[in-house]
Amino acid sequence: MLPPARRRRPVPERISVIVPVYNERATIAAVVHRLLTIDLPAPREIIIVNDGSRDGTREVLDGLAADDPSLRVIHVDVNRGKGHAVRLGFAQAAGTIVAIQDADLELDPVQLAGLVQPILDGQTDVVYGSRFLAPSSTPGSWLTRAANHFLTWLTNWLYHARITDMETCYKVMRTDVARSLPLRADRFDIEPEITARLLLAGHRVLERPVSFSPRSRAAGKKIGWRDGLVAIRVLGQIRMERTPVTAPRRDSRA
């Protein structure tokens, strides 16, 4: 007689926050401090991917990592781009949920708790923080806002979706979902690639409002108009890989 099957214990939830960093010596310590001290609804690990910084960021990160075991720092010797850093972070994550956090203080990490909670509650596997759903948010200049609106509209049209902020940094999802995406982007085209592949696979993106404090190119902003053209190409190319899911979706802004 076979022994009764043992029930598998559920895996404890854990949040892995991926922080791509390139030449952010002025802000990275403040971002890390916020990530280590904010209230989150599950245990955390912070994975900093230093993408070939040459401004002293490496030395700052090494000092921070020596003080806290929940902080992991991965140094990449040559700058490869945000996409490469995000993909490396996804691969190294030990948590059940991954979240992306920029290192420039445009987005306050305290908002992560509200983005993670719907996943923990079983409402969805993917949450985006939308800068355009927050009435007090000011997502950049009129030109930046127009570009973001156009790219989001194009995403919705191509993939039959209803999101409001495709280019948001705050993309939070279950780790197995992130690792199921065949991501290849190395630079800022990681943003449209993640969204396109999520929608193509039929994942529902739940959005929550987040406040945003943009910085200028003079203050270190790195994304530019050429990245917008690349985003259009990426959205089109992935759309042509196979027919996207066209089944009706619930409102992603619920």
* Uncertain regions spanning at least 5 consecutive residues: 216-220, 246-254
Q: What is the helix fraction of residues, given as a range?
A: 25-40%
Ends distance: 51 Å
Please state roughly what percent of the residues sit in beta strands, choosing from under 5%, 5-15%, 15-25%, 25-35%, 35-45% or over 45%.
15-25%
CATH homologous superfamily caption:
Spore Coat Polysaccharide Biosynthesis Protein SpsA, Chain A
| Average pLDDT | 88
Rg of Cα set: 18 Å
> In sequence order, what are the helices and strands, one letter per element?
EHEHEHEHEHEHHEH
Number of helices: 8
Largest sheet descriptor = 7 strands, mixed
The count of domains is: 1
Q: What is the 3D shape?
A: globular
| Class per helix and strand makeup | alpha/beta
CATH first level: Alpha Beta
Strand order, sheet with most strands: 3-2-1-4-6-5-7
CATH third-level topology: Spore Coat Polysaccharide Biosynthesis Protein SpsA, Chain A
Query: How many beta strands in the DSSP annotation?
Result: 7
Primary descriptors:
single chain, seven-stranded mixed β-sheet, Spore Coat Polysaccharide Biosynthesis Protein SpsA, Chain A, globular, alpha/beta, disordered C terminus, 254 residues
Question: If you had to describe this structure to a student in words, what would you say it looks like?
Answer:
This protein has one domain (15-239): Spore Coat Polysaccharide Biosynthesis Protein SpsA, Chain A. Helix 5 (142-159) packs parallel to helix 8. Helix 1 links the parallel strand 1 and strand 2. It is globular, with a radius of gyration of 18 Å. The chain has helices at residues 28-37, 57-65, 82-92, 112-120, 142-159, 175-180, 190-200, 225-239, and strands at 15-21, 44-51, 71-76, 97-100, 126-130, 171-174, 205-209. The chain has 254 residues and is of the alpha/beta class.
